[in-house]
Amino acid sequence: MPLLVVTGVNKLFGRLAAVNGVDMAIEPGEIVGLIGPNGAGKSTLVNLITGIETPTAGRVEFAGSDITGRRPAAIARLGIARTFQIAQPFRNMSVRQNVAVPLLFRAGHASRVSDALRLADEVLETVGLGPKRDLPAQVLTTPDLRRLELAKAIALRPRLMLLDEVMAGLTPAETDAEMGLLRRMNAQGITLLVIEHVLRVVMGLCRRVVVLHHGAKIAEGPPAHVTADPAVVAAYLGPRHAAGRPSPS
Amino acid sequence: MDGTQISPSVQIALQNAVNGLLIGGTYATVGLGMSLVWGVLNVINIAHGAFVMLGAYTTYWLFTLYGIDPFVTLPVAGAALFVLGYGLQRVVVNQVIRASFLITFLLTFSFDLVVTNGALAVWTADVRAVTTAYSGRALHLGPVIVPAIRLMTLAAALVVALLLHLLMSRTRLGSAIRATASDQDAARLMGIPIAHVYAMTFAIALATAGIAGGLAGMSFPIYPAMGANYTFIGFVVCVLGGLGSVTGALIGGLIFGLLTTYAAGWLGPNYDYIVAFSALILVLLVRPAGLLGRTARFRG
Amino acid sequence: MTRREATGIAAAAAVIVVTLVLPGALNTYYIRIITGIFMFGILASAWNLIGGYTGYPDFGGAAFIGIGAYTTGILMVRSHLPFAVALPAGCVLAAAAAGAMGALLLRLRGHYFAIATLGFMLVLRQLTANLEITGGGSGMNLPPASDFKIFYYWMLGGLVLAVLAGFALPRSRPGYAIAAIRENQDAAQVLGIEPLPYKILAYAANAFLFAAAGGIYAYWLTFIDPLTVFNIDFTVQAVVMAIFGGPGTVLGPVAGAVILKSLDAALTNVSLFLHNVFFGALVCALVIFAPRGLAELFQLRPGRSRVAALGASIREALQENRV
Q1: What global pTM score does this model have?
Q2: In B, which residues are within 8 Å of C276 by CB distance?
Q3: Interior CA angle at C316 toward C172 and C62, to 5°?
């Protein structure tokens, strides 16, 4: 049984369909890529899955139960974690306090603050933020803020993690380290949906990729297959480029 | 008048509608200035009601000491408050115009403390009233009675709203204010002197507050602590009418007038806050614009 | 126990002992002034729970002063209950009212929340003036106390409670929820925090303490009417003291209350009529010249304590228009 099933999901902002009839399923243990040009509706889709926005139509199921329109906190406690495209730290709290928050409020949470802080230190070691644990989050650099986003998501101990461009702004070496971390998390049983612009990451991590354009799913399949799809090329580069390629007929 | 009979309940409902619309003009004038400052400066002026109080006292003293007709005193009250408003914004409010709303809130609260308690010290807590020779006169239109002075306050309120609308839509100052409200940085790049525009906005708002005070003083008692009521009324009017336009404030004021008049008719005289607050909460909860705290903009 | 904690506990014990024996050494005037300082210490610390830690600037705190005062008064006069029973009842009722109203009001943000809470206070004032059991607009008399010094001790007890709440909250699990909500509500929600109950908790705690101050104040005053207790000035002063002393710190609001209330007492000696004008001018000057408040002066070394840093950051956030 798939872990996440999205069926015919629509989201209208006024008359604009940000997400338009998207179907998607993710099996447990998969790493799925979600790509598409800017404004394709990727982040909106993540918002719909995590309850930040309510779909205008359609259905979201997680682990067999309908979570459409449920509150974000309830969805988080069911086991869906996410990171935000623009890091959303608790700026005036220390790095370890930031990570203690999900530890105190996930399902099966730590009941004492001191326990949560101790567990937070362990999570911070995994993402390489250990030495910075006592700094206020607002002084972190952009790559460190992304690590903190990831640490908070990990601390929620999710079954499914939705990663919204966690690699943006990282150096190639940092990207490699991050990909290693994601693979380890996946090996521990966390299913991943990765939104990413860096094609190397998508190719390196995902067996399967979903492509959104203007809110609709235009392609789905193995990365190499999908990136060769004329519709996908057209979406990214504009129709002229696609027309310039040899047509299938 | 003629032979047609209408039932007393219909007559009361009609009379309430007339009374509500008549007094709504005064409420709209109170809301105008608040809406202007909120929309353009993004400041909720807690002292707005205190300035309304100053306007009321201006009218009261000119009328009581020199026998000047209260409607003639309206421009005087407006001009005095205009000058006060310009100075206050230029010298004080402008210092913290970029600070958080809590800071500007506190600042205008401090104005309220100074003005209200100053008035209390100078004029005592005595409740006063403006009673003219024509205060008792009324027109009888069919089954309803229209008090002359209330009709004149509504007319004056409409004139003020019309003038403000023309100012915002037809003058260079108006377009500068609107440009500043919609995009401060762009306005600065276009060479609009922001500090002056802000000060003029605050001055105009206080001028309308002064006039509103003169109007309120003709219908309601005048005392130093009256301001808090008018600040709250101004806020409710802004929320009811939709924020940031002359028409909005006018509609909000008239709705508020009707609401409180009907409430007084049904529940008794001392339920206006309860009704206003309920309306406020209801509107805020069903209108996400309020919920999301979206910045209001003044359209003129 | 670290040395810092030991010093802190020793200092707190010393302060409590001194305040307990102080009334024996002072004349009536000073006892009255200090009782007033304690009262505003309660109010400022209480406001800090919702306005400072949670970031929801309540401007209707006087609503809860009124609930506390009138519940205490009604239970003492009409039900002949002792003060020690009537007061907690008022506190509980205020907390319950905050729970009910908070469920509506705490969905609003910024200006809207501030004005809506103000409106709530005005509504309660009007309701109180309309009701018969409260004595309506003409107010009600409470039985006089045997000794005015008991108010000193009651207010001191309330203040200790308020300070303890301010100390315990940020170190507790709900405190983490409240901090996360203040910093970033969306991020808090996707980490499993349902915001409303925690906001209501902070609001109710604030209401409980406001009502405590209100109830003691009513018994102290022996006469209350709607305008005296549902008075915006209480709220404004509490807010000013908390901000001046340092929002989001444990002792900042108390320090703010001590300094500003002492100043106010001195000004009252100068002019009974104009002291509120002076106070307003002072607030105005503070907002313009020292918007970050008093605590900034004590922020000498970085990294002194996390709580101090939090207070500093909240003030910074206020400056940068983020709250």
Answers
A1: 0.85
A2: 113, 116-117, 120
A3: 65
